[in-house]
Amino acid sequence: MEFDTIAAISTPMGEGAIAIVRLSGDQAIAIADKLFKGIGGKRLKTVSSHTIHYGQIIDPKTEQVAEEVMVSVMKGPKTFTKEDVVEINCHGGLVSVNRVLQLLLTNGARLAEPGEFTKRAFLNGRIDLSQAEAVMDLIRAKTDRAMNLALGQMEGRLSKLIRKLRQEILETLAHVEVNIDYPEYDDVEEMSHRMLLEKGSYVKEEIEKLLRTSQQGKILREGLSTVIVGRPNVGKSSLLNSLVHENKAIVTDIPGTTRDVIEEYVNVRGVPLRLLDTAGIRETEDIVERIGVERSRQVLKEADLILLVLNYSDECTKEDENLFKAVEGMDVIVIVNKTDLPQVIDMDQVHKLSKNHKLVATSLLEDRGVDELEEAIASLFFEGSIEAGDLTYVSNTRHIALLNQALHSIEEAIQAVEMGTPIDIVQIDLTRTWELLGEIIGDSVHESLIDQLFSQFCLGK
Q1: Given this chain, do its domains 6-112 and 131-213+393-445 carry the same CATH topology?
Q2: Which CATH class for the 131-213+393-445 domain?
Q3: Is residue 27 over pLDDT 70?
Q4: In this model, does residue 6 exceed pLDDT 70?
Q5: 234 a known binding residue?
Q6: Which of these, 72, 184, 196, 393, could form a disulfide with 87 (CB 3.0-4.6 Å)?
Q7: Domain spans of the chain, in order of start
Q8: Is 235 annotated as a binding-site member?
């Protein structure tokens, strides 16, 4: 498969020590060679693969020096895209890196689309679709655990399992074809039913095993949407600052200081939290505060975890009781804050309202109870099982949806076999399962979906 030659800046824009402009395609080396002036007249066309060379980028029209560079030359197919790849290392400034890119574009290269380098790696057979998606997961990883999960998927752990399941289904389908083609053998049908049940049950169990890891995997990939709620002035913003270890939210004794939802990512014991500090939920005549309260109620509905904060030095009010009703059935940790002040709250009432929710006492002013809270968050969702390194975790929403569909399809196939449905009818559900699993790794996926997935990538990746 041949493509034109693409170029893009692969490092973040801004000032830095080094910036990298990447080229990929059949003409990558030739285009770079037009602009490169090496020591002693060295030409990039003649150098060995996977070597780096010092020199200058020259504007062919003016013959002026545009930049001092180090150029890496990597010849396909032993590259990320399986094409010829050139990486130009220049000084990390906006002007210098853009000058080099513009010279490449005016001398035969085309500006790469977002994710096009990784897309080419997929289309050229270097990686499958699940591995390509793991590249972006690796870039976006916010904890060591999330990074390890992405690395495992990049190495093909999920791909190998999916391919194994598809092969099991393919062999079963081949056996079914024999039954259809040679119906005169009486024992073939009985053997086929037995084999369908055996292989179908195995595939079903493996899919279920993957789906059991999906909640943890999805949390590690996307972060746990965690909402801090409570009446005004109970210490919600102080809690955000304690978890972030930085003064992100304004803290005052004046109720209603937080007028909007404040969002921040934080790593708690390896669990990425998308932490949302909300405006205190109460009835108010202040128009701006009322808008903040409504936004707080909205994010409450979409949360994975609720941190409900109460005031140790104040009585439980009707508003507190309404908050407990609003989060009923959700994952909640109740935090009784301001334990450095005299006790006014009725703890028996708190226990009654909390029901089975985890309860943590804190004094954020004196930095007490934060460790216990972090431990409670980690144990609530993972209970230590996330450390199992031999498990294949599913974290991608698209993969989870396809696995659920595949599970439904294989269950229908098993049910049909148990009901004595003709083999050629069962074959339809088996084939559907095989196709759905193929969509995960990109063996049976529409071109429009591929374009959509890679458009979410960084420019230059």
Answers
A1: no
A2: mainly alpha
A3: yes
A4: yes
A5: yes
A6: 72
A7: 6-112, 131-213+393-445, 225-386
A8: yes
Please indicate if the annotation marks 356 as binding a ligand: no
What is the token pair recorded at 216? 């943890």
Q: Identify the band that residue 288 occupies on the pLDDT scale cut at 50, 70 and 90.
A: very low
Binning pLDDT at 50, 70 and 90, where does residue 287 land?
very low
363 carries a ligand binding annotation = no
Query: Residue 401 to residues 156, 222, 432: CA-CA distances in angstroms?
Result: 19, 15, 14
Mean pLDDT rounded to a whole number for the chain? 80
| Nearest to 331, CA basis, from 227, 204, 187 | 227
Q: Tell me whether residue 181 is annotated as binding.
A: no
Q: Is the pTM of this model over 0.85?
A: no
State yes or no: 257 annotated in a binding site.
yes
pLDDT in tens, 166-192: 998 888 888 777 666 655 555 556 667
**Fold of domain 6-112:** Gyrase A; domain 2 (3.30.1360)
Encoding tokens for residue 158?
A: 């999920």
Whether residue 22 is annotated as binding a ligand: the answer is yes
Residue 87 labeled ligand binder: yes
- Which of the two residues, 444 and 202, has the higher pLDDT score? 202
396 annotated to bind ligand: no
Q: Is 258 annotated as ligand-binding?
A: yes
Backbone angles phi, psi at 297, to 5 degrees: -65, -35
Q: Is 76 annotated as a binding residue?
A: no
Among the CATH numbers 3.30.365.10, 3.20.20.80, 3.40.50.300, 2.70.70.10, which is that of 225-386? Answer: 3.40.50.300
Q: Tell me if 237 is assigned to a ligand binding site.
A: yes
pLDDT 10s digits, 309-351: 898 898 888 888 888 888 888 888 999 999 999 998 989 888 8
Q: What pLDDT does 53 receive?
A: 95
Amino acid identity of residue 178, one-letter, is V
Whether residue 396 is predicted with pLDDT greater than 70 in this model: the reply is yes
Quick one: pLDDT band at residue 421, thresholds 50, 70, 90?
confident
Q: Check whether 238 is labelled as a binding-site residue.
A: yes
